[in-house]
Write a structure and sequence with these properties.
Elements lengths: L4 E4 L9 H16 L3 E6 L9 H14 L8 E2 L4 H13 L3 E4 L3 H13 L25 E4 L6 E6 L3 E6 L7 E3 L7 H11 L4 E5 L3 H13 L6 E5 L2 E2 L15 H7 L3 H10 L12 H7 L10 E2 L2 H14 L2 H15 L5 H14 L6 H7 L1 H4 L7 H4 L4 H15 L6 H14 L4 H13 L7 H8 L1 H8 L4
Parallel strand pairs: 1-2, 2-3, 9-10, 11-12
Antiparallel strand pairs: 4-5, 5-8, 6-7
Helix pairs in contact: 1-9, 3-5, 5-6, 8-10, 11-12, 11-13, 16-17, 16-18, 16-20, 17-18
C-alpha cells in the first residue's frame, strides 16, 4: 500500500483565505495521522495575477499556524513542459482534439443557453471534424474529449457516493490558444507526478474532480482518493469570501489571536471527535480523521474564536504568554521600553484576566505603557472636591509607608472609607481614574502595586 501523500495547492493571486488555511490544515493533519507526507504546490500559471507578495503571504500564513510542508514547495509554472507533453499524448490517443471556434461563436452559444435558461455546454462542433476543414491562420484551443454516454461515480471520503451523467461535462479546454495549459489539466498532471494518494479540498471542486478523473482514465493512471470538504459560511449562511472581515490569517494576527487557538478552532470547524473541544498539537494529529468531517457547511463564528483564544491565554504559562505579547506589540503596536516591559511581565496574572486577545492585554497595560495619562471630561467630572481630598489623604499616608504592598495599602484604603463615610468604590474609583485615565480596568490594588510608589505619587500629585 502506498504511503499517504496529500497536498495543498493555492494560487498566489491574492492573500490566503481562512477557508484555504483550513483545507491545508485538514490535508496536513490527515497525512501526519498516517505518517505520510504533506506537500505544498504553488499554482502560479496565471502569470498576470500571480504575485510574489501573495506567495510569501501564503508561506508565512501556513508557517505561523504551524503547518510545515515536506520538501521544497512545488512551483507549477516550472513544469509546464510536462503538462504540454500530456496534452500532446491525449491528442495522439484521440482523447483530445483541436477546436477552432472563435470567441464570437462561443459567446453566441453561451447567449443561446442563457436565453433557454439552461447551463452552457460547448456544442462539440470540432469533436469529430477533420483537420482539412480547419480555417487558415487560426490558433486552436485543445479540448478534452469527455465521455458522452453513461455516468461516473466517485466514492467521496466525506460526501459518500456521488454520481453524475457524463453528458453534463462539456469538452473542456486543456490548452489555451497561447499554449498554456488550464487548471484541470495541470492539476491532474501535477497530482500524478507528485504521486498524490488523497486529494482533500473544498466541495466547490466536485465538478473539477469529475473532469480530472476522466483525464486519469484516458491516460490509464492510478486515481487518487477524493474528499470534498463543505465550505465555510458566514453566520448569516452566505459563502465566506475574501471581502468578509477576518478572512485572512493577517486579520487574526492583528488583533492578537494566537496560532494554537486558531488552529484548534479551524480543526473543529466542521470536524468533531466525541465531545472534545480543545486539542493539543499531538492530540490533533492522533485523532484527526476524515470520518469526523460533517457534510454541511460550517459557520465562522468570531465569538467562538475569541472564546478559544481566551482559553489559550488563561492556560499558557506567563513566560510563554509574555513572549507572545512582546512579539505582538513589536509587529502591530509599538516597542515598549524595558522598564515597562518588566512591569507588564510581573503583572500578567491580572492583566490577562478576562482578556480574549493580545490586543486586550495591550489595552489593559496602557496605564503602564503610557507615561502621560489622558483623562476624558466624563471621567474628570467624577473627581469632585471630596474625591480630591481623598486622593490627597491617600498620598500623605502612602508617603509614610516604607513597604509598598497590599498588606500596607489595605489599612489605608479602609481608613479612608471609614473617615469619608463612603464605600470601596468611593475611594477606589477616583484613584483608578487618575492613575489609569479610566474608571474601568484592573483592581485598584493591582494598579497601585504594579506602578510602584513613585509613579503613583507622581500621577496623583497632578490633581488640582
Amino acid at each position: 500500500m502506498k504511503k499517504v501523500a496529500t497536498r495543498f495547492a493555492p494560487s498566489p493571486t491574492g492573500p490566503l483565505h481562512i477557508g484555504g488555511v483550513r483545507t491545508a490544515l485538514f490535508n496536513w493533519l490527515y497525512s501526519k495521522n498516517h505518517n505520510g507526507k504533506f506537500f505544498l504546490r504553488i499554482e502560479d500559471t496565471d502569470k498576470e495575477r500571480s504575485k510574489e507578495e501573495f506567495k510569501l503571504q501564503i508561506l508565512n500564513s501556513l508557517k505561523w499556524i504551524g503547518i510545515n510542508h515536506d520538501g521544497e514547495e512545488y512551483i507549477q509554472s516550472k513544469n509546464i513542459e510536462s503538462h504540454i507533453k500530456v496534452v500532446n499524448k491525449l491528442l495522439e490517443t484521440g482523447n483530445a482534439y483541436k477546436c477552432y471556434c472563435s470567441s464570437d461563436e462561443i459567446e453566441e452559444q453561451k447567449l443561446r443557453a442563457k436565453q433557454k435558461k439552461i447551463p452552457y455546454i460547448y456544442n462539440r462542433k470540432w469533436r469529430d471534424k477533420s483537420e482539412i476543414e480547419a480555417p487558415q491562420d487560426v490558433k486552436p484551443v485543445i479540448r478534452f474529449k469527455s465521455k458522452i454516454e453513461g455516468s461516473t461515480k466517485i466514492n467521496d471520503l466525506v460526501q459518500g457516493d456521488i454520481e453524475i451523467e457524463n453528458n453534463t461535462i462539456e469538452d473542456f479546454i486543456i490548452l489555451r490558444r497561447d499554449g498554456t495549459p488550464t487548471y484541470n489539466l495541470s492539476a491532474s498532471v501535477d497530482d500524478h507526478n507528485m504521486d498524490m494518494t488523497h486529494i482533500i479540498r473544498g466541495d466547490d471542486h466536485k465538478i473539477n474532480t469529475f473532469k480530472q478523473i476522466q483525464i486519469y482514465e484516458a491516460l490509464q493512471w492510478e486515481k487518487p482518493l477524493f474528499a470534498h470538504i463543505p465550505l465555510i459560511h458566514t453566520l448569516e449562511g452566505k459563502k465566506l469570501s475574501k471581502r468578509d472581515n477576518a478572512s485572512t490569517i493577517d486579520d487574526y494576527k492583528k488583533i492578537g489571536i494566537m496560532p494554537d487557538a486558531l488552529r484548534n478552532y479551524l480543526m473543529r470547524l466542521g470536524w468533531s471527535y466525541k465531545d472534545k473541544e480543545v486539542f493539543s498539537l499531538e492530540e490533533s494529529i492522533k485523532y484527526f480523521n476524515l470520518e469526523g468531517i460533517g457534510k454541511s457547511p460550517s459557520k465562522l463564528d468570531m465569538s467562538r474564536i475569541l472564546s478559544m483564544n481566551e482559553y489559550y491565554i488563561k492556560n499558557k504559562s506567563n513566560d510563554d504568554l509574555f513572549q507572545s505579547f512582546e512579539e505582538y506589540c513589536k509587529n502591530f503596536k509599538e516597542n515598549i521600553n524595558n522598564e515597562n516591559l518588566n512591569i507588564i511581565k510581573k503583572s500578567l496574572t491580572f492583566l490577562k484576566n478576562k482578556a480574549k486577545t493580545m490586543e486586550d492585554i495591550y489595552n489593559n497595560s496602557k496605564f503602564i505603557i503610557n507615561d502621560e495619562i489622558i483623562i476624558e471630561k466624563a471621567e474628570m467630572s467624577l473627581i469632585t472636591e471630596n474625591a480630591k481630598n481623598i486622593i490627597k489623604s491617600f498620598m500623605k499616608k502612602v508617603n509614610e509607608i516604607e513597604v509598598f504592598n497590599k498588606e500596607t495599602l489595605e489599612p489605608i484604603i479602609n481608613n479612608l472609607i471609614s473617615e469619608n463615610q463612603t464605600n470601596f468604590k468611593g475611594v477606589g474609583q477616583p484613584l483608578r481614574i487618575i492613575l489609569t485615565g479610566s474608571k474601568f480596568g484592573p483592581g485598584i490594588y493591582d494598579i497601585i502595586i504594579s506602578l510602584g510608589k513613585k509613579r503613583v505619587l507622581d500621577r496623583l500629585s497632578k490633581v488640582g
